[in-house]
Amino acid sequence: MNPKRLVVLGAAESGIGAAVLAQRQGFDVFVSDRGRIKDSYKRQLTSRGLSWEEGRHTPELILNADEVVKSPGIPDTAPIVAQLHERHIPVISEIEFAGRYSNAKMLCITGSNGKTTTTSLIYHILKKGGFNVGLAGNIGRSLALQVAEGDAYDWYVLEISSFQLDGMFAFRADIAVLLNITPDHLDRYGFEMQNYVDSKMRLLRNQRAEDSFIYWAQDEYIPAELVRLAPASRLLPFSDAPQEGAAAFVQDGILTSSAPAAPFSVPVGELSLRGRHNLRNCMAAVLAAQRAGVPAEAIRAALSDFPGVEHRLEFAGSVGGVTYINDSKATNVDACYCALDSVDTPVVLILGGLDKGNDYSAIAPLVRAKCRALVFLGADNAKLHSFFDGFGLPVRDTSAMADCVAACAELARPGDTVLLSPCCASFDLFANMGDRGRQFKDCVRNLQ
Questions:
Q1: Which of 100, 124, 228, 288 is most buried, judging by how many CB atoms fall within 10 Å of its CB?
Q2: How many CB atoms lie under 10 A from the CB of residue 403?
Q3: Among the listed residues 137, 135, 104, 106, the one whose alpha carbon sits nearest the alpha carbon of residue 121
Q4: So what's the pLDDT on residue 342?
């Protein structure tokens, strides 16, 4: 009997991991990437005897698949994906595929904002608690590759994007965390918010009574969706203030959790993370860690010494009395709102990039109240000008990071904050949001 044929679309971190795992499981594997494959990934494929192509998707080599693992960056509207769907060939995500071959417990985090911070914090807490835990998903190393290498972990903490969720069907999260749902990636969801909401709620799929679903009680969408979906899992809402049914909340400067049976509390002043949005991230992390069984002392210690996440409200330097903050991970409007809300000084705000269907009205009051000037950084800033030009603020257009930082330095005054919180994806001018953030930090260092 011939082995099943598995085709992997996209030869980056998740695709390489899926290919290696599929080979280990006896599949006939082929890897295809329309772009150029990095040399390091080519070496991995070639050294393992895996077949691959770059610069094209050859239909004859793909449409004969029994199943396809698709990179989350490839939309369903891509011609080859549409052809796969027409032929009813299953198209899944790397997380879905890897989950079939792991017995580890899965602690999964999604949300429009705060995913990386909360995922990293939960991983930090579990490590501090002595857990045998891996980090994967949209952060860290490929889950499939870690499973292929031996799956030595008892737990995985996974950051999961909506694009990954779209390709997940039988996967089950033992503990699921949904931080929030705000408009994002609407260009991938037909500019229909409900389509995006439906994607995020897929995290609940297949959960059982013994599983946990942790969510923000004040979210605009989640509570109503839970009524509609009536999940079987244990619901653990966290709230900005005490309310009936809240499993965690903040009151009088104390973060309190009542789940599970043993209460937990920690003064907000002892948390290493600052800002109202980070209180929500911390509440979610506490509830997840408690459900996993981490001792209270380890949770408390980890909350106080967590170092934070690169490109998320990261201090980039201070020059001439001006503070520079790298929030390159703020690729949607709500993330920028949280960043502006956390800053107490006048702000020179850097906006721009690849717009994903943004509505900037949510940040308008904060921009009016806090911003001294705006610097646009993008290949096309027309939409930003259309919305913000009437605010009466100084505005500069830039299309390179060095020019952007130079303009900010000219506009800022001692005591101000220059905040890179772009609201947009980075792919118009940069390789990714990490490249954008690193270039920002390099340019700030060059000012000194």
A1: 288
A2: 15
A3: 135
A4: 86
Tokens for 271, please give them: 């948390």
Residues sharing a CB contact under 8 Å with residue 78, sequence separation 6 or more, in sequence order:
none
Write phi, then psi, for 54 (nearest 5 degrees): -135, 160
Measured between alpha carbons, how far is residue 22 from residues 4, 16, 46, 62, 91 in Å? 10, 10, 15, 15, 14
Spatial strand order in the sheet of 105-110: 133-137, 155-159, 105-110, 175-178, 212-216, 234-239, 248-251, 254-257, 264-267
> What is the 8-class DSSP label of residue 311?
T
pLDDT digits (tens, 9 = 90+) for 216-225: 999 999 999 9
- Quick: pLDDT tens for 55-99: 999 999 999 999 999 999 899 999 999 999 999 999 999 999 999
Q: Angle between the 193-201 and 222-229 helix axes, to the nearest 10 degrees?
A: 60
Spatial separation of the C-alpha atoms in residues 42 and 26, rounded to whole Å: 21
Q: Is the pLDDT of residue 2 over 80?
A: no
Beta-carbon-side half-sphere exposure of residue 435 (alpha carbons within 13 Å): 10
pLDDT digits (tens, 9 = 90+) for 162-192: 999 999 999 999 999 999 999 888 888 899 9
User: How far is it, in rounded angstroms, from Cα 349 to Cα 322?
Assistant: 13
Task: Give the three-state DSSP class for 79.
Answer: helix
Q: Sign of the CA dihedral 405, 408, 410, 415?
A: negative
Query: What pLDDT is recorded for position 263?
Result: 82
Please report the pLDDT score of residue 68 as a whole number.
98
Rounded to an integer, what distance in angstroms lies between the CA atom of residue 127 and that of residue 135?
10
Domains in the chain, start-ordered, CATH in brackets? 5-92 (3.40.50.720), 96-305 (3.40.1190.10), 314-447 (3.90.190.20)
Q: What pTM value is reported for the model?
A: 0.81
Question: What single DSSP character describes residue 103?
Answer: -
